[in-house]
Amino acid sequence: MATKLDADVVVIGGGAVGAACTYLFSKVGLSVILLEKEKSCATGITGRNPGVVHSGSYYLPGTLRARVAVRGNELLWNFCKKYNVAHLTCGKLIIANTERQLSALETIMQSGKENGLQDLVFCDKKRLREMVPDIVAKAGIFSKTTGIVDGVAFTDRLLDVARSNGAIISLDTPFTDAKQINGHWQISTAFDPDYKLKVRFVVNAAGLSAIDLRKKIFPDKPSPTIYWEKGSFVRYTKRNAFKHLVITASSPGFPENRVDCIPGLDGITRFGPIINLTTDSDDFTVSESTVYQVFSMLKNIFPKISEQHLQPCFSGIAPKLEKNREASKDLIIERDQNSGWIDLLGLCSPALSASLAIAEEVRALLVEM
Hints:
Order of helices and strands: EHEEHEEHEHEEHEEEEHEEEEHEEEH
Number of strands: 19
Number of domains: 2
Helix content: 25-40%
CATH architecture of the largest domain: 3-Layer(bba) Sandwich
CATH topology of the largest domain: FAD/NAD(P)-binding domain
Largest sheet: 8 strands, mixed
Radius of gyration: 21 Å
């Protein structure tokens, strides 16, 4: 006799990516249970994120990261408009001053075209000063479809729609174990240790915990090294000071230390991130030295900004497949060849803004099983 399943899919993790998977699966008629260990969703990576919606110009052509960034940008903006999620389509200026940065601008423009973008516009020095008075920059590119989204509100709305489609969102339910039995998975949780959820598919979207979860279930399977990268931000005390995101140019796939200017939905501009590796997933302190580090990088671009108008703001931690300033490695969406298990690993930028496209990639793998 066939085993009666509790659902088609269990999704582990209630951040933006887990919520997007739950939303999309429920939309196409799959029964879904989402397990979130905290008392509310989007408290981890998603909740400690400046909410930048990337266009895809900064990612190497042909990579999964580039593909989901471009597709995710379109899907997210459409979702936000349809379901009234707070967002700001402010656009982004990618600026250059040095010869290296000017060369990177050309590479970014070419990469953007290869990735299918039609929104990139070259800006000369005069045009840049019209868009951002007092900026010091020789040239730049304006990306029209880059913007800001409220990541927590976006996640909550995804789950609201998923619930209306019949999905079950189980909060305060830490995943503890899983065993494959007779072609399905039996899932154990701390919420009810005696009951085993029976499902066909499992999607590991557990964020910072995803790699440990994979190692627990598949101890003999090779796993990549994951680095926890802590990014700290400061806030500018003058409200509504910037209309656009502003970043300095670097070659796609080869990140460099920089400080981004990120206008917020609340009128507050954040600058960052200052990057450090960490082993403490609960350390979200922002040191006073962060202000000086940010100011030292800003003063040559925005000479009228005073250090006294900068204050420590927030920090977040992202799972990276490479150390800071190493060449970027691609995102990992990996299906176990012998079961209905899918791992999502190293989902740092642009995972929030690409979450709906990542969900499409995962769904495609489910269809193949």
